[in-house]
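Entry:
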Amino acid sequence: MSRAVEESNRRMLRARDAMDRAYAQPLDVAALARMVHVSEAHFIRTFRATFGETPHRYLQRRRVERSMFMLRESARSVTEICFAVGFTSLGTFSRTFREIVGQSPSEYRASGPGAGPAPTCFAMAWTRPSSFGEARGGAR
């Protein structure tokens, strides 16, 4: 791997880490692009080439992952969780959750823990959605 590719990967990792820290905030592609010193269009293309999904889809999946935890571990309403993880519309949250997980947030919560006696790290890896849209049989 060339030095330029390594540097580009480091920059994309830095942007992804920033998204992970501020997942509940609105996505600001311009600010992320400035952070890694590239144009917005180049940032989106490079992020997708590096991680296999656009920044928007990555953030949606990250928000859904967090909401999965909150649905299982808290008694907060689906609406409260929707807004807590950064969605601004319950409809968009429910649709996106179903696309990624394969069931509605309420169905997911009602399905119970399902992890059994497995260590937490295995349970988290097993329930983590791998990419946007896979639950329906294909990437978007």
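The CA atoms of residues 71 and 109 lie 6 Å apart.
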